[in-house]
Specification:
The chain contains eleven helices and 17 strands. With 372 residues, it is α/β, with parallel strands linked by helices. Strands 3-2-1-4-5 form a five-stranded parallel β-sheet. Strands 6-10-7-8-9 form a five-stranded mixed β-sheet. α2 links the parallel β2 and β3. The longest helix is centred in the N-terminal third of the chain and has 15 residues. The radius of gyration is 22 Å and the shape is globular.
Length: 372
């Protein structure tokens, strides 16, 4: 009988409770034990895990690597899915391998390219993947120049941090004066140009932003599963147009995503995002980690997290073809249990590994993505 697999997710997104559910419901019927760590004691991933620890705060990247190596050794981790300090961790892949742990993460070179969006845009453009026009700005004068060029061409300007994930810091520029209109309803993404310029002129340190035209829908996120041999085993696009979601296998999205995943060593799980600029798709962002919405591919009959773990263990699943494309759907919030106390229960005995435990009964991933 195959031995159980121990998987660790560190300080990951709440949506990855579904990633954990899929590992337990794997088609190989393999026992999976999941370890999770987080800085928030009320993160649902801690409650969903078999074992959990609070992460120490304030560690440097180098100190975090030492912490991670210790976790892997003490917990008997077979596969580590790093999010926090990913770049520092993948630089020590050989040390984790010596501890018996495979990293489900890309090469150090790939992580370095896509940590910085300006570097990423230059890199992907060199292999023929279209990108939107963009300006890197650090001062108010540079911002004004970039916005002026975009508006002269008939575009709405927007900006986002050159480094970051999840849409944090994304804003769209407006020249409309601030008024009560902006205080009605929910806060929106628009920010007044004069207020941004004033804030930049008062700032003690320069910012590091990319300014570009607002890109149009649909937004298509292509989830890729790529082996360490640089061959893509799966590429499926998840479409988003307003609240309507769906799936696509159209090559206008998949072909450039494969170019990126294979050309830059985006091993295991990555997510390549596109939007429309005029009448053509252009690259918006590249995530060197599993996307929060990866579990939605279960609506297409595939278990991608488990296929990725198999690859990390050296058990090549071969091409992973969705047997069908799920119907259009939307995403709604649903309850998830938390631990009964605010601090996660800690294991006292660190010498004996816990046995695999039955997966808690949770709503299926499909239940969290309701058809329209």
């Amino acid at each position: 009988m195959p031995s159980r697999v121990r998987v660790w997710l560190n300080r990951t997104y709440a949506e990855n409770v579904f990633f954990m559910d899929q590992l337990r419901r794997n088609p190989s019927d393999r026992a999976v034990e999941i370890h999770a760590t987080h800085g928030d004691p009320d993160s649902p991933v801690l409650a969903a895990a078999d074992t959990a620890d609070l992460e120490p705060e304030g560690l440097s990247p180098a100190a975090y690597v030492e912490y991670a190596l210790d976790q892997c050794a003490r917990r008997g981790i077979d596969v580590f899915v790093p999010r926090l300090h990913q770049s520092a961790i993948v630089a020590h892949r050989a040390e984790f391998a010596a501890a018996g742990t495979a990293l489900l993460a890309p090469t150090p070179e790939a992580v370095a390219v896509f940590e910085d969006k300006a570097t990423a845009y230059e890199a992907v453009r060199s292999v023929g993947v279209p990108v939107p026009p963009w300006w890197r700005v650090r001062t108010a004068d540079e911002l004004l120049a970039a916005v002026g060029e975009l508006e002269a061409a008939g575009h709405t300007a927007c900006f986002k941090p050159a480094a970051g994930a999840g849409g944090v810091g994304f804003r769209m520029i407006t020249r409309a004066p601030f008024s009560l209109t902006h205080l009605s309803g929910f806060p929106g993404p628009y920010v007044q140009l004069d207020l941004v310029v004033e804030a930049l002129r008062r700032a003690e340190e320069p910012v590091d932003w990319l300014v570009m035209p607002r890109l149009e829908q649909p937004e298509v996120s292509v989830d890729c599963l790529t082996g360490p041999d640089n061959r893509v085993r799966l590429a499926v696009g998840r479409t988003k147009n307003g609240r309507r979601r769906g799936f696509t296998l159209h090559e206008q999205w998949l072909e450039p995503a494969r170019l990126v995943a294979e050309g830059f060593g985006l091993h295991y799980l990555s997510n390549v995002q596109f939007r429309m600029f005029g009448d053509r798709p252009v690259l918006m962002d590249v995530n060197t980690r599993p996307a929060g919405g990866l579990h939605q591919l279960s609506l297409c009959g595939v278990n991608v997290p488990w296929a990725a773990v198999q690859l990390a263990l050296g058990e090549d699943p071969g091409p992973v073809e969705p047997p069908f494309l799920g119907q259009d759907y939307t995403v709604v919030a649903g309850p998830r249990p938390l631990r009964p106390v605010s601090l996660p229960q800690q294991r006292v005995d660190t010498e004996v590994l816990l046995p695999a435990v039955p997966a808690p009964v949770q709503p299926s991933a499909a239940a969290q993505a309701l058809p329209l």
